[in-house]
Amino acid sequence: MDEKDRVEERLATLQRVLDGLMQRYQQRVPDVGRLVRVMQNEGLIASPAEIENDHIAFRTMGVAPLGIQSLEKIFLHYGYQRRDFYTFTEKKLNAFWYHPPRETFPRIFISELRVAELSAEAQHLIRSYTGDVVTDPVASLDLDNAEAVDRFLHQALWHLPTWHDYQQLQAESEYAAWVIYNRYYLNHFTIAVHNLPDGYNTIPDFNAFLERHGFQLNQAGGKVKISPDGKLLQSATVAQMVTARFAEGDEHSIAGSYVEFAERRPLDEFLHLPANQLRREHRREGFETNNANTIFESTYSSQTHEKETTN
Length: 311
Fold this sequence. Notes:
Elements: H1 3-28, H2 30-41, E1 53-61, H3 68-77, E2 81-88, E3 93-99, E4 107-113, H4 120-130, H5 146-153, H6 163-172, H7 174-182, E5 188-192, H8 203-212, E6 225-226, E7 232-236, E8 241-245, E9 251-255, E10 258-264, H9 289-295, H10 301-310
Helix pairs in contact: 1-5, 6-7
């Protein structure tokens, strides 16, 4: 097999991994199916295949041998390239985004909690779970086996947390609590709205469409999150609540995953191009710290509790 064939084989494997992620994600987030249906009913798309997935995101614990350095190996293997680094001071997070091997694939955003900056009690609690993992789990994973990778991304890396421990972590870091239960479950996928029909192809217009159909938006920092250059606009739904079974067998409703929306406007040098000639490379790339900082809060109680009282 020559190099070109090997690349194609890896991209085919990547597609199967992404399909597996999206399949389970849609099962956990009913908003996805409902959103696709209303987009079709209103004529925005003819089929789900027309939706452009701007990016997907994962959350991790920044403890050896886990964190970004472990999870990113999966996507680097398939040809993704690590790009910009981001830091979130108040939330104690680091993140990178990864450029896809082809523009038909989504960008990837991986964040990790800086566990060492938490209180001694929270650190001890987290390590009482992550201590189950003594070697880098990706190092022994057959990355050319899509089914194996899919299983890994949905399996338990540590023992099931207790409700008490979950609450203890949530009081200090809602991100930590989300990861301790949800692990590598896909945190969100992102609909690129800029290629939708006129009247729906900006974040303000798409937000209005979402609210007309009863979707609740993350209001942290405002419903529309705008980068300083004005070329990256984002919004997100509030995470849907899922029934979680904890270690003692008791069940509680906790934040699951959500849907994000992105509008990437053309770079100045490509403003002259007609809309039907604009490609991904003509638009604003990367991410924005302030935007991402508030979108993280789609799973936070300040947003989800509001949803519970509204519904």
